[in-house]
Design goal:
Radius of gyration of chain A: 16 Å
Largest sheet of chain A: none
CATH topology of chain A: Ferritin
Shape of chain A: elongated
Low-confidence stretches of chain A: 20-24
Oligomer: heterodimer
Strand content of chain B: 35-45%
Largest sheet of chain B: 5 strands, mixed
Structural class of chain B: alpha+beta
Helix content of chain B: 10-25%
Number of strands of chain A: 0
Mean pLDDT of chain B: 82
CATH superfamily of chain A: Ferritin, core subunit, four-helix bundle
Helix content of chain A: over 70%
Mean pLDDT of chain A: 89
Number of domains of chain A: 1
Chain lengths: 172, 119
C-alpha cells in the first residue's frame, strides 16, 4: 500500500522533467518541490516520534526532523534573498498527496509494524527524492546558490537513504 | 677553594640551561592547536604533523548537526550546527573518524607519537 503512494510521487517527479525542460529553468518550481519534500519528511519524522518506542527508529526520526528542518530553513532564507517565489506545481501536489496517504496508513499501525512501515517508506521516499534531485531538480536549478544548496541536500539525503536502508535491514 | 670560580659559573649555568632546553626540545614540544572545518556535508583537510598531546578544534560551519567520532573511540565530539569543540589527541597512528549521523562523512588524522612528558 505504501509503495503505491510512493510510486505515485515518483511518477509525479518523473513527469516534471519534460515540463521543466520546456520552460528552461524555473527556480520557483525547483525550490517548491525541494521544500515540499523537506516538509513531508519532517512531518513523517514527527509522526514517528509520536508513535515509535524503538530507540533506533526514534534516533533516525529525530535526525530527519533536524536535518530536513535545517535545509528548509536555509531554503526559505535563500529564496527570500534571491527574490524567488516558490511556485506550487503538479509535482509538489503529487508528493503531498502521496505523503498524506502514507501518513494515513501509518496512523493505523503501531509497534514494530509501524516501525517497519515508517522506515520502508523512508527508504523509498529518499530514493525517489534523491533520484529527482540528481536527474531533474539540480540540472534544472538556474541560480548557483540554489543549485549548491540542492547539491548539499543530495549529499545529506543520500546519507539518510543509507541510514534508512541499514535500519530497514535491522528491523526486518 | 671547593666551588667553581666566578669565571666558570656563567658557563656552567649556560651548559645547564642548554641541557634543559635540549631536554625540553626532545621531551616537551609545545602542544599545537589545529582546526578542522566541517561544511557542506564534508570534513575539511586534516593537519599534517599533528602529535599526541596536540589539540584539534572541530568547527562545524555546516547547517547540520554532526559528530567527529574516532573509529578507535579515542574521541567523540558532538557538534551542533555553528558550534566548535576541541579534542586532545591521545593516540598515535592513523585515526580514521566519521560522523555518527552521516557515516559517509569520513576523514583520518595522522598522529605522530607525543614526547614523553617527564615520566
Amino acid at each position: 500500500m505504501m509503495w503505491k503512494a510512493t510510486s505515485a510521487a515518483a511518477a509525479g517527479l518523473l513527469a516534471l522533467a519534460p515540463t521543466m525542460a520546456a520552460k528552461a529553468s524555473d527556480d520557483g518550481v525547483v525550490a517548491h518541490v525541494a521544500y515540499t519534500a523537506g516538509v513531508i519528511d519532517v512531518a513523517a519524522g514527527k509522526q514517528a516520534l509520536a508513535k515509535s518506542k524503538n530507540e533506533a527508529v526514534r534516533a533516525f526520526a529525530e535526525e530527519m526532523v533536524r536535518d530536513h528542518g535545517a535545509v528548509n530553513e536555509q531554503a526559505l532564507a535563500l529564496v527570500a534573498k534571491l527574490h524567488v517565489t516558490p511556485r506550487d506545481n503538479p509535482t509538489s501536489a503529487a508528493l503531498n498527496k502521496a505523503a498524506a496517504e502514507a501518513s494515513h496508513k501509518l496512523s493505523s499501525l503501531s509497534g514494530s509494524s509501524f516501525d517497519r512501515a515508517y522506515v520502508t517508506n523512508e527508504v523509498s521516499f529518499h530514493r525517489t527524492v534523491n533520484g529527482a534531485l540528481r536527474t531533474t531538480l539540480i540540472p534544472n536549478a538556474h541560480n548557483p546558490e540554489l543549485k549548491a544548496l540542492l547539491q548539499t541536500g543530495l549529499r545529506l539525503f543520500s546519507e539518510h537513504q543509507m541510514h534508512a536502508e541499514a535500519l530497514a535491514r535491522k528491523l526486518r | 677553594m671547593c666551588g667553581p670560580s666566578l669565571l666558570w659559573r656563567p658557563i656552567i649555568a649556560l651548559a645547564t640551561g642548554s641541557m634543559v632546553f635540549a631536554a625540553a626540545g626532545a621531551q616537551q614540544r609545545p602542544p599545537a592547536t589545529y582546526t578542522v572545518v566541517i561544511d557542506k556535508m564534508a570534513f575539511g583537510a586534516t593537519p599534517r604533523g599533528a602529535h599526541v598531546g596536540d589539540t584539534i578544534i572541530w568547527v562545524n560551519h555546516d547547517l547540520f548537526r554532526h559528530t567527529a567520532t574516532a573509529a578507535d573511540h579515542s574521541f567523540n565530539v558532538d557538534l551542533p550546527s555553528g558550534k566548535s569543540a576541541p579534542t586532545v589527541l591521545t593516540r598515535a597512528g592513523t585515526v580514521p573518524f566519521s560522523c555518527t549521523f552521516h557515516p559517509g562523512m569520513k576523514g583520518a588524522l595522522n598522529v605522530a607519537p607525543g614526547q614523553d612528558r617527564g615520566s
